[in-house]
Specification:
By secondary structure, the protein is α+β, with helices and mostly antiparallel strands. The protein is about 15% helix and about 35% strand. It has one domain: Mog1/PsbP, alpha/beta/alpha sandwich (Protein Transport Mog1p, Chain A). Strands 1, 6, 7, 8, 9, 10, 11, 12 and 13 form a 9-stranded antiparallel sheet that branches. Strands 4-5-14 form a 3-stranded antiparallel sheet, covered by helices on one side. The chain has a two-stranded antiparallel ribbon with strand order 2-3.
Length: about 220
Amino acid sequence: MLKCPLPSLLVAASLGSSLLFAPAGCDEPQEEAQRTASTSAESTSDLLTGRKSQVRIDTSALDSPPDDPTSLTVLGLTAPKPATWIWQPPKRTMRKANFTVPGRDGEDQAELVINHFPEAPGNTLDANLSRWSKQFRTIDGGNPKPLISTLDADSMPVTIVELHGEYMGMGGHWHKTDHRMLMAVIDAPVGTVFIKLLGPDDTVEANRAHYMSMITGMKQAAQ
């Protein structure tokens, strides 16, 4: 898969709308203060393409470990995963699944998070790319340019965004050196789904192949 650095304005112009992330709440695009009462989606409009879907899909969080430790099903999607990625209770309202991802020696954990956000004004690709880039700092003190690649998974368009550097979060009050983020933005029947892997560079690189297998192996679950 070809990866290429793009300036944020060019990325915004070429890819259209929508993305996400979080450790302090502000990192995730426009998270609602409270969980909505509905746990299903019907006739949702996708943030990337405006595509409509008429299916009814369970949007509740994965609030218990998957029965099969080598796969997960959430938001109408089924995907393979390593058994070593351990389920954790979702930490925030709009998180639909949360897993810890071990490093090479079982230390220096990364985190895998799956999110789905209702449509909201300002929840655009350009806005989120700017937000994410500001969470990282390069060795020269600037913000890194994202690496962008695209693929299809079970006929669903997927955009992969990658950032690397000193991770500061949105507030910048704490720093974590040599961190990497992989973000998959999936144009799914339920709407836009975000799958993020964030952690120490060595840990993310050690799990890159597993992460990409999860994304490329994702299927639309039978409804």
